[in-house]
């Protein structure tokens, strides 16, 4: 048998079912790979004892012919997900050594279905970032490097630990979260697949909140099929999250390989932005051709408010963050810096606990919600959000099943290369993904080709609300046509 | 719109984040860069447009007003920096 860490999640599942490998063997192989890859900084906490105990329990169930859909499959968990008895920090100093007394709904469903936890994955602090450079644990190095260069590249963000761990074969799949592109952009940067489901599809309960009207949980894994398998376990109604939707969860894997013949795929002209690299434009054309060859009809569509999504997002998301992060006050959990009175204690605690990007966003959010500015900024941004959603509704009303766009405006960039002087430079990474969060729609990023310097590039498919199945069907067409990305050989 | 240094100090206080005098000019630059960026929203005519309140149209779910959990005071104060008899301890706020 080949190296167990080279298996996809679906292959590992089938190998376990056929008793060609045990969960203890697969889990052991990943724990070894993780130890050898510590230089990438993808994991902020390894939980080998728990992993091996879970693997042993899975093997016992499998031996009896029992076991859930993810039985014995080792996964990495983004450190934004609360894990009972296992340190959860959102990669912020302000949470310190917070050990939750509860388990997030999404991870509890993964364990219910038999999955094994390998450890907690690095991310941008409170998921605020597009490069994983704002983490209190330091940046993650991508397993990818430009051809002929040793310069460290970012794995994208905020789910940079998740994308790097999947690409470096340090887990079969990972949980991630997406507020403005934090699943899809890191997937695109690392040649992996990631889906942000429709808002309400997965419970947000027990996931550290960033911007509650935009946050969604989703997986990053090596293939479209692996994403479909993971999402089925992650999704579902949860009475503890009033925005989670009470709808049955389809068998997403059944949608993988389903024909897209006769489907209408929209190409939005507004995504052809100024200064778009020729290779991104070419990739986008190629993607449309692949879908056409599979029987889809390609139509040009218009989403006129596209360019306003990112500026509106940088009002809505910081506003919600400033409110959500008010809870970090040094009283109930996390670090505390003493002060002469309670206000000084709050101020010193939050100054010491929050990193620069988080402080910046909390302050912008505070400003746009403050007396006299609320209507000019926040209410206006929410009106623009209505217009962005209406654009999509009008396109879908014309019979369009899904929309094809580039996932990112470029391939991965270097650690320390962006956002040093102007924070907006980093924000522009999310220009193609953020519209989807603003409208609450599902979006998937699929690897589709390579840049001229040998880095993966991704395409994004945007679906109708709760029609993740079409994304899995069409996503797999792109995946098959592009050919599986050859992941980098270990240099780490 | 842009913010002056007095406004930066006021926002920091509202956000309960201590900032040093040396940090103020830098923060002012960063906040103004973001505010400049969002300025382009003024091009959009939003008259007659309802602000979004729920991204997925749904009726707010309700449940019976009854106790569903409890008796876990140890767990609740388990991560607090300072506690006594299941109370969170804070500096004196009432003279």
TrEMBL record, chain A:
The active site is at residues 78, 158, 182. One of its GO terms (molecular function) is transferase activity. Its EC number is 6.3.5.7. Keywords: ATP-binding, Ligase, Nucleotide-binding, Protein biosynthesis, Transferase. It catalyses: L-glutamyl-tRNA(Gln) + L-glutamine + ATP + H2O = L-glutaminyl-tRNA(Gln) + L-glutamate + ADP + phosphate + H(+). SUPFAM superfamilies: Amidase signature (AS) enzymes. GO terms for cellular component: glutamyl-tRNA(Gln) amidotransferase complex. Pfam families: Amidase. Residues 25-471 form the Amidase domain. GO terms for biological process: translation. Heterotrimer of A, B and C subunits. Belongs to the amidase family. GatA subfamily. Allows the formation of correctly charged Gln-tRNA(Gln) through the transamidation of misacylated Glu-tRNA(Gln) in organisms which lack glutaminyl-tRNA synthetase. The reaction takes place in the presence of glutamine and ATP through an activated gamma-phospho-Glu-tRNA(Gln). Hydrolyzes indole-3-acetamide (IAM) into indole-3-acetic acid (IAA). This is Glutamyl-tRNA(Gln) amidotransferase subunit A. It comes from Alsobacter soli.
TrEMBL record, chain B:
It catalyses: L-aspartyl-tRNA(Asn) + L-glutamine + ATP + H2O = L-asparaginyl-tRNA(Asn) + L-glutamate + ADP + phosphate + 2 H(+); L-glutamyl-tRNA(Gln) + L-glutamine + ATP + H2O = L-glutaminyl-tRNA(Gln) + L-glutamate + ADP + phosphate + H(+). The keyword Translocase does not apply. One of its GO terms (molecular function) is transferase activity. Its EC number is 6.3.5.-. Keywords: ATP-binding, Ligase, Nucleotide-binding, Protein biosynthesis, Transferase. HAMAP family: GatC. Heterotrimer of A, B and C subunits. Allows the formation of correctly charged Asn-tRNA(Asn) or Gln-tRNA(Gln) through the transamidation of misacylated Asp-tRNA(Asn) or Glu-tRNA(Gln) in organisms which lack either or both of asparaginyl-tRNA or glutaminyl-tRNA synthetases. The reaction takes place in the presence of glutamine and ATP through an activated phospho-Asp-tRNA(Asn) or phospho-Glu-tRNA(Gln). Belongs to the GatC family. This is Aspartyl/glutamyl-tRNA(Asn/Gln) amidotransferase subunit C. The lineage of its organism: Bacteria, Pseudomonadati, Pseudomonadota, Alphaproteobacteria, Hyphomicrobiales.
């Amino acid at each position: 048998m080949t190296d167990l860490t080279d298996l996809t999640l679906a292959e590992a599942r089938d190998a376990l079912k056929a008793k060609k490998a045990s969960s203890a063997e697969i889990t052991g192989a990943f724990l070894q790979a993780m130890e050898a890859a510590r230089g990438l900084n993808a994991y902020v906490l390894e939980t080998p004892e728990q992993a091996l105990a879970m693997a042993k329990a899975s093997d016992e169930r499998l031996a009896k012919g029992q076991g859930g859909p993810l039985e014995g499959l080792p996964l990495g968990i983004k450190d934004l997900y609360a894990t009972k008895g296992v340190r959860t920090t959102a990669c912020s100093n302000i949470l310190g050594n917070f050990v939750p007394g509860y388990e997030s709904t999404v991870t509890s469903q993964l364990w219910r279905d038999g999955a094994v936890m390998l450890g907690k994955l690095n991310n941008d602090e409170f998921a605020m970032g597009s490069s994983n450079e704002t983490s209190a644990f330091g940046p993650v190095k991508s397993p990818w490097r430009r051809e002929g260069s040793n310069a460290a590249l970012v794995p994208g963000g905020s789910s940079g630990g998740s994308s790097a761990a999947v690409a470096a074969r340090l887990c079969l799949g990972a949980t991630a979260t997406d507020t403005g592109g934090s699943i899809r952009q890191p997937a695109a940067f690392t040649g992996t697949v990631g889906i942000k489901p429709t808002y309400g599809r997965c419970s947000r309960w027990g996931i550290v909140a960033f911007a509650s009207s935009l946050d969604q949980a989703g997986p990053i894994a090596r293939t479209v099929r692996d994403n479909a398998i993971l999402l089925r376990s992650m999704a579902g109604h949860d009475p503890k999250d009033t925005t989670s939707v009470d709808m049955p969860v389809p068998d997403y894997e059944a949608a993988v390989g389903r024909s897209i013949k006769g489907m209408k795929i929209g190409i939005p002209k507004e995504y052809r932005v100024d200064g778009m690299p020729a290779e991104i434009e070419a990739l986008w054309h190629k993607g449309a051709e692949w879908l056409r060859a599979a029987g889809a009809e390609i139509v040009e569509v218009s989403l006129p408010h596209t360019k306003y999504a990112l500026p509106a997002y940088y009002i809505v998301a910081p506003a919600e963050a400033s409110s959500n992060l008010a809870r970090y006050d040094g009283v109930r959990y996390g670090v505390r810096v003493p002060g002469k009175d309670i206000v000084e204690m709050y101020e010193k605690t939050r100054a010491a606990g929050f990193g620069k990007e988080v402080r910046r966003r909390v302050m912008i959010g505070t400003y746009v919600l403050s007396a006299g500015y609320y209507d000019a900024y926040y209410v206006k941004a929410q009106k623009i959000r209505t217009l962005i959603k209406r654009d999509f509704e009008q396109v879908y009303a014309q019979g369009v099943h899904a929309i094809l766009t580039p996932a990112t405006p470029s391939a991965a960039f270097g650690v320390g290369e962006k956002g040093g002087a102007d924070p907006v430079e980093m924000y522009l990474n999310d220009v193609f993904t953020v519209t989807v969060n603003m409208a609450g729609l599902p979006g998937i990023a699929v690897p589709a080709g390579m840049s001229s310097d040998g880095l993966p590039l991704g395409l994004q498919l945007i679906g109708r609300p709760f029609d993740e199945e079409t994304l899995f069907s069409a996503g797999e067409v792109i995946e098959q046509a592009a050919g599986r990305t050859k992941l980098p050989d270990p240099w780490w | 719109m842009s913010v002056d240094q007095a406004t930066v100090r006021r926002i920091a206080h509202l956000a309960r984040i201590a900032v040093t005098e040396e940090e103020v000019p830098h923060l002012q630059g960063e906040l103004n860069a973001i505010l400049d960026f969002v300025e382009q929203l003024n091009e959009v005519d939003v008259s007659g447009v309802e602000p979004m309140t729920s991204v997925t149209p749904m009726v707010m779910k309700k449940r019976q007003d009854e106790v569903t959990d409890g008796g876990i005071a140890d767990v609740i104060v388990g991560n607090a920096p300072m506690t006594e008899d299941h109370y969170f301890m804070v500096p004196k706020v009432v003279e």
